[in-house]
Amino acid sequence: MPVHGGNTGAGDHSAEEILLAFASAVRAAGVKVTADRARSFVDAVGRLDVGRRPDVFWAGRATLCAAPDELGAYQRTFEAWFAPERSTAATREAAATTVSEASLADDAGPSNGAKETVRAVASRRELLRHRDVATLDAAGKELLRRLFAELPVRLPTRPSRRRKLNPHGDIDRVRTLREQLRRGGEPGPLRRARAPRRLRRIVWLIDVSGSMGPYADSLLRLAHRVVAEAPHGVEVFTLGTRLTRVTGALRLPDADDALGVAGRTVPDWSGGTRLGEVLRAFNDRWGQRAVARGAVVVIASDGWERGDPALLGRQVERLHRVARRIIWANPHRGKQGYQPVQQGIMAVLPHVDHFVDGHSLKSFEELLGVVANA
User: Fold this and answer.
1) Where are the domains of the chain?
2) β-strands 202-207, 296-300: how paired?
3) pTM of the complete model
4) Nearest-CA neighbor of 311 among 343, 335, 340, 341?
5) β partners of residue 170
6) How many CA atoms lie within 13 A of 210 on its CB side?
7) Could you tell me which of 260, 251, 243, 235 has the C-alpha nearest to residue 209?
C-alpha cells in the first residue's frame, strides 16, 4: 500500500516530506512530538517497507508517542492521513449516533498555526532555560534578557528584635506582668505579641575577571533583578583586581542602562583576578561593618585564583563568621564532568554553606531559591 496523506498528493511530495508532515499533524493533535522524534520516525520507516501501512503505523507509534494517553490521538491522526475513507465513514457514523453540540470555543481564538507558534516559542524558552548562557547566540541572548524580568524573586527575612502586639502571637509575659502591676496585682487579660519579619540584607560579590567574562553580564542582570525588588536591602560589588561597589548603578530601573553604567564604573572588567586580596579589602571596609553582618552573601566566581589560595580561604572563613550564609555560585559546576579541583575552590569549600551552579537560567532560578531560604 503506497504512503499517501489524507490531503496531500503523493506525486507532488517525497515520502520523507509526507512523513514529516504527518509528524507535524500528530503534534498538532496533542502529542508531544519533538524534532528528534520526527527524525527518528523517518529513519525507522526508511529501515522498513514504506509501502506497508502496518510498518508505518508501528514505526510512528514507537517513535512519536511517549505516554499511553497519546496513543488515541496518534491512532486518529494516522487513520485520517493514511486511511481517509475509513476516517470519513467513522466520522459519519459518529455523527449519526451522537447529539451535535455547539462549540464553546471563542471564534476569535488562535488558529492551529498560531497554536503551533505558541508551542514553538514555549519550547524554545524551555530549552533556553537549560542552555549555558556563554553559548547563546545574539537571538538567544535577547530572549534571555526578556526572561530575566520574569524570574520569581523571594527575599530572605529575619524576625525583628521588637515584638508588636498581636492577638495571634505568643504570650508576652513582660507586657502582661506590667499591666498587672498597674492594677495592683489584679489578674487581667493576657497580652500577646509577635515579632514581625523584616528583610535580611543580601550582598552580591560578582567576579568580572577574564575567565568569568561570558557569565558576568548575566550575573549582573540577575543581581539587578534582585535589587529591583529591594533597592535598599541589597549591595552589589564586583571582584577583579580591585573591589568596586556598583549598587548605585544597578538601582536604575532599566537593566541595559544599569549594566551600561556599571560597566563604565568597573575599571578592571575582564582583567585579572586576585580574589583573596579583594575579599580582604571587602572584609576590612565592609565585612566587619553592618553591610555583611547577618547578611546572605552570594559569591559568583569560578574560583580561579592568581594569588595565594590560602589567603582566599582565610578571607572567606573570616566573612563566614559575620555573615548569615555564604552561597558560592560557580558557572562550571553545572557542566558534565566538573570536579572542584581548583586550588581556590578547594580552599573556600569548607567555609561555604551552599555550593551551587551558575551557568543557566534554570540554575539562576535555583540560586534565587537558595537565597530566599537562607
Assistant:
1) 15-95, 161-195, 200-372
2) parallel
3) 0.63
4) 343
5) 193
6) 4
7) 243
Q: What is the pLDDT of residues 39-74, one digit of tens each?
A: 888 888 888 877 788 888 998 898 998 887 788 888
Do residues 335 and 135 touch, judged by C-beta distance below 8 A?
Answer: no
Cα 308 to Cα 330: distance, rounded to the nearest angstrom = 19
What distance in Å separates the CA atoms of residue 367 and residue 151, rounded to the nearest whole number?
11
Sign of CA dihedral 90, 94, 100, 105: negative
- Give the span between the Cα atoms of 226 and 202, in whole angstroms: 9
Burial of 127 (0-12, 13-18, 19+ CB in 10 A): exposed
Nearest to 227 by CA among 244, 254, 197, 251: 251
Task: Report the number of secondary-structure helices (H) and strands (E) in the chain.
Answer: 15, 10
Domain 200-372 = CATH 3.40.50.410: yes
The DSSP call for residue 166 is E
Instruction: Identify the three-state secondary structure at position 288.
Output: coil
Bridge partners (DSSP) listed for residue 234: 202
Q: Average pLDDT of the chain?
A: 82
Rounded Cα–Cα distance for residues 133 and 142 (Å):
11
